[in-house]
Structure formats: structure tokens, C-alpha cells
């Protein structure tokens, strides 16, 4: 047993769990989803039955029956002295792919397939790999030529950059982790959009941050009143933002939103981490706003970028753009985590740099096909849902007509469709009325998935008593 979750914390994570009858099975499903999503880590002791019954205001028999169901499905185990403890899930049954079912459609990750030209670039790289094979094969700050190429790209779009301001990382995820470990001390406040990219929130939480949420909606964008209040009152050490094609809403900040947030961050002395992993995924945005933090006298900004969505997630190349001093601090912290980025992948990235305009155009084409197919299928199959317009990015953040996102996602697993429920993207609870539907898969797979979503939704919706839906509304 590694850790323990309190009844209150579990209740907060569960949100509106009571989505169907019998109550014990709905509760078991809610806890199962948290385990599958890794929101409750393996080997965590669940609260005692009596304590959880008190907090959830249900009988102890209901909790006992839910725990029994979880034991039978292999999600928890009873350990003498520790009570009910969550079990590591086999990969096949776990949070990612249902490997056992080759027909399964995994939409938990919003990752486009590799850019079709990548295999020939890999072949070209293999032809000139002799020099890197004679070197150690990895380095902590990044190859000079790759750093220079990325710096030049920034300079070209009006953000003058020196190669000394670039550090190559193993994807944007490693960049976020390194920045969180370097910049966050336990108890520091970090302002973060809600909904957000969950693994960024994980990094800041793991570094001991207290997260302060800034709401973003598909209809209204960034809540500017809340932004000014949050920067003014919480005086966060850091803010983590995705101004372009925010994951999961797909929204981009308007120039006004950029101005207000930059000024508020500057007044609070907050360093803003701008995650541009999805920034190049423009399908049909009419006007490209100016880069966040590029205005004069604007807030201090650290940028994070990646080839993960633009080229391929399997190419673990990301970067940090920061002051040379911060690059040195991150470098010092990096050795404890990893020794650097493989030269091989950096060589491939160098060869890709001049092809980026062509790659970005192909991505727009691919994402447009996915988005249009998903929107059309959703309008047909689920006309009662709110489907926003996304002019770029990787996903649709749809509004369900009842707070049953978790129940839907659990129901879909048996139909071979894997999705993440709305609450996975929240910072402080909620979003049971939302679902992220990535449009990175081929149209035909998206149509099949949405067909299954429609069928499962009608079943889940019909099984939920209206009185429960009303009660859950108060929670969400
Ligand atoms: C917004 C955002 N940031 C960072 C990452 C991590 O990217 P990478 O694959 O480069 O580690 C992702 C991947 O999904 C993302 O969506």
C-alpha cells in the first residue's frame, strides 16, 4: 500500500456518481473509471466503508456492495490492516488501449497518425547516422543546429530568439515536467485553465503546486474577470496557458484576451508557461492572432513546443524557449531525471525543419476531414448535444444534455470505444456534462465510434432516473 485517499477526496473526484440504479453498481463504476484514468493511483487504500458511507450519504451496505463488485472485477483487493486497496491494472484492461480487442477504437489520446512523409525522412536520416553513432548519442541541452533551426522559426514569426534560449526535450511532456520541478516549490500557486491538458496539471500537482483554475468555455473563451481576480488575489508563481487551439476546447485567445491576461500576469509578477504543442494545428482560423507575450512590456513568458502533434507523437522531440539563465537552471535539474534527448531523433527533427510548412498543410487537411466527419456524425446521431465549432486543434469539447459523462465512458468500454470523461480535464471537479472527442482518427473510425456513442448514450440516459440527474446538477 503506497497511499491512502480520504472519503472527502474520493467524493470530490467522484462528483455526480449516482448515474444509474442500482446505486452500488453506479458507485463501483465511478471508482473503476477513476482507477482506469489513473486519477486514483494503484496501491491506494480506499476509505473505510463507514467513513465513505457518511460522506456520500448512503448506507454502509451500498459501499460494501460497491467494494465487493470492485473486488470481483479485479480493481481492488482486501489487504489485512489496510482495507480495500486499488490494484495495478493490466495494460489491456487499463487506461490506454484495449489490446485484447483489435477492433477497439482508442480515442483517449488525441494523436494524429504520423505525417506520411516521415518514413522517407527516417531513411534519409539512417543514411547519415554514422556521425551520431560515433558520438555518445544523446545530450542534455540539444544539438546546436536543431536549436538554431527552432530559434530561427521563432525569429521569423516576430519572436527574436537566440539558440542559447532553446533547450531540446523528450517531447513537450518532459519540458513541462522539467519546468514544474525547476520552478515550483511546495505550496506555490499555479494558475491553470479549466478544462486543461490533464498531464500538465499532473506535473504541477506532483511538484506540490496549489492549482488555481481559470475557466475557458467553447462559447465565451477565457473568463477575463476571473483571470484578473485570480492573478490579483492568488498572485500565482506560474501560469500555464494554451492560447492557440487550447486542448481540449479548441479555442484560441482573441487579441483582447491576450492583452488582458498578459497585463494581469505582469502586474502579479507571474511567469507564464505558454504551451504551443497544438499551436500549428490551424484548420480554418480566419485571423491568426499575435503570439502570446510577443507585445512590448508583456508578461515574462516561457514557451513549450513539440513535434508530437505536428509530425508524430512517436518522435519524442519537444523544446523549451526560455532565458539562457532559466535554460541553465533546467539543465541542472534535468540530470536527476534523464541524461538528455537522443541524437537520432534530433537528427530526424533537423531534417524535418525545412519541411514544416508542407507538414502543417497536410495536418490541416487531415484534421479538417476528421473534424467535419465527427461534427456531421454527432449532429445526426446526437442532435440534443451541443457541438461547438473548432477551427483547429485536436478535439471537440461537446456539451452533453445530462451530467453523465463518466457513465457514458464506462458504458462505451464494453462497446470497444475508449474515451476520457469530462472530469479528467477538470482542475477542481465538474465537467460531467462534457466529453472530449478527438478528431485525429480517420473519418471512418470516428463515424463508427460516434455511432456507438449514440447507442450507448441513449441506454445510459434512459437508465438514469430524472431525479438523480437533477441532484447531480447541483454537484457539477
Ligand atoms: C497541450 C499539450 N501539451 C503537451 C503535450 C505532450 O506532448 P508530447 O507528445 O510532445 O510530449 C500534449 C500531448 O497530448 C498536449 O496536448
- How is the CATH topology of the largest domain named? Aspartate Aminotransferase, domain 2
The largest pleated sheet is described as:
8 strands, mixed
Would you identify the regions where 5 or more consecutive residues have pLDDT less than 50?
91-99, 467-476
pLDDT averaged residue by residue? 91
Level-2 CATH architecture of the largest domain: 3-Layer(aba) Sandwich
The CATH H-level homologous superfamily of the largest domain: Type I PLP-dependent aspartate aminotransferase-like (Major domain)
Q: Tell me the distance between the termini.
A: 31 Å
- Total domain units: 3
Tell me the β content.
5-15%
Structural class: alpha/beta
- Number of DSSP helices? 17
Radius of gyration, in Å, reads: 23 Å
Attached small molecules: pyridoxal-5'-phosphate
Description:
β8, α9 and β9 (210-217) form a beta-alpha-beta unit. The chain has helices at residues 7-14, 23-36, 49-56, 60-72, 118-127, 130-133, 144-156, 171-183, 198-206, 224-234, 255-268, 324-334, 343-352, 356-381, 405-414, 443-463, 466-475; strands at residues 3-4, 44-45, 76-79, 83-86, 105-106, 138-139, 166-169, 189-194, 210-217, 221-222, 238-241, 271-275, 301-306, 318-321, 341-342, 395-399, 417-418, 434-438. 43% of the residues lie in helices and 14% in strands. The chain has 3 domains: 3-86, Orthogonal Bundle (Arc Repressor Mutant, subunit A), CATH 1.10.10; 105-115 and 358-475, Alpha-Beta Complex (Aspartate Aminotransferase, domain 1), CATH 3.90.1150.10; 118-354, Aspartate Aminotransferase, domain 2 (3-Layer(aba) Sandwich). The protein is globular and about 65 Å long. The two termini are 31 Å apart. The protein has 17 helices and 18 strands. The structure holds pyridoxal-5'-phosphate. Residues 171-173, 197, 242, 247, 275, 277-278, 306, 308, 313, 318 line the site of pyridoxal-5'-phosphate.
Amino acid at each position: 500500500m503506497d497511499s491512502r485517499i480520504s472519503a472527502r477526496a474520493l467524493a470530490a473526484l467522484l462528483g455526480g456518481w449516482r448515474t444509474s440504479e442500482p446505486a452500488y453498481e453506479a458507485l463501483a463504476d465511478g471508482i473503476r473509471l477513476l482507477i482506469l484514468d489513473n486519477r486514483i493511483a494503484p496501491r491506494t487504500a480506499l476509505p473505510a466503508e463507514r467513513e465513505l458511507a457518511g460522506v456520500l450519504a448512503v448506507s454502509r451496505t451500498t459501499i460494501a456492495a460497491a467494494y465487493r463488485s470492485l473486488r470481483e472485477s479485479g480493481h481492488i483487493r482486501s489487504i489485512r490492516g489496510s482495507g480495500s486497496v486499488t490494484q495495478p491494472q493490466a495494460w489491456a484492461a487499463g487506461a490506454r488501449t484495449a489490446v485484447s480487442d483489435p477492433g477497439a477504437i482508442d480515442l483517449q489520446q488525441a494523436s494524429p497518425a504520423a505525417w506520411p512523409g516521415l518514413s522517407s525522412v527516417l531513411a534519409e536520416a539512417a543514411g547519415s547516422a554514422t556521425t551520431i553513432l560515433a558520438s555518445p548519442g544523446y545530450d542534455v541541452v540539444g544539438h546546436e543546429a536543431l536549436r538554431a533551426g527552432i530559434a530561427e522559426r521563432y525569429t521569423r514569426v516576430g519572436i527574436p530568439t537566440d539558440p542559447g534560449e532553446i533547450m531540446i526535450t523528450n517531447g513537450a511532456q518532459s519540458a513541462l515536467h522539467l519546468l514544474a520541478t525547476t520552478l515550483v516549490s511546495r505550496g506555490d500557486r499555479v494558475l491553470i485553465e479549466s478544462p486543461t491538458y490533464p498531464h500538465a496539471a499532473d506535473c504541477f500537482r506532483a511538484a506540490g503546486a496549489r492549482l488555481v483554475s481559470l475557466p475557458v468555455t467553447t462559447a465565451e473563451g477565457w473568463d477575463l474577470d476571473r483571470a484578473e481576480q485570480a492573478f490579483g488575489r492568488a498572485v500565482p508563481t506560474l501560469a500555464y496557458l494554451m492560447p492557440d487551439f487550447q486542448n481540449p476546447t479548441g479555442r484560441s485567445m482573441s487579441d483582447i484576451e491576450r492583452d488582458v491576461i498578459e497585463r494581469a500576469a505582469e502586474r502579479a509578477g507571474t511567469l507564464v508557461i505558454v504551451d504551443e504543442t497544438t499551436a500549428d494545428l490551424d484548420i480554418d482560423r480566419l485571423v491568426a492572432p499575435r503570439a502570446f507575450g510577443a507585445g512590448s512590456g508583456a508578461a515574462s513568458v516561457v514557451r513549450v513546443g513539440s513535434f508530437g502533434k505536428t509530425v508524430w507523437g512517436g518522435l519524442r522531440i519537444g523544446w523549451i524557449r526560455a532565458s539562457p539563465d532559466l535554460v541553465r537552471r533546467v539543465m541542472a535539474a534535468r540530470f536527476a531525471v534523464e541524461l538528455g534527448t537522443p541524437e537520432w531523433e534530433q537528427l530526424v527533427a533537423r531534417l524535418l525543419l525545412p519541411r514544416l510548412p508542407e507538414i502543417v498543410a497536410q495536418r490541416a487537411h487531415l484534421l479538417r476531414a476528421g473534424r467535419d466527419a465527427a461534427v456531421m456524425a454527432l449532429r445526426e446521431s446526437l442532435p440534443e448535444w451541443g457541438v461547438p465549432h473548432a477551427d483547429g486543434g485536436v478535439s471537440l469539447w461537446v456539451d452533453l444534455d445530462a451530467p453523465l459523462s463518466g457513465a457514458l465512458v464506462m458504458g462505451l468500454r464494453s462497446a470497444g470505444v475508449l474515451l476520457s470523461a469530462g472530469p479528467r480535464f477538470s482542475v477542481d471537479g465538474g465537467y460531467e456534462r462534457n466529453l472530449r472527442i478527438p478528431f485525429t482518427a480517420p473519418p471512418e473510425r470516428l463515424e463508427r465510434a460516434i455511432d456507438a456513442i449514440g447507442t450507448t448514450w441513449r441506454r445510459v440516459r434512459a437508465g438514469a432516473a430524472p431525479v438523480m440527474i437533477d441532484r447531480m446538477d447541483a454537484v457539477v
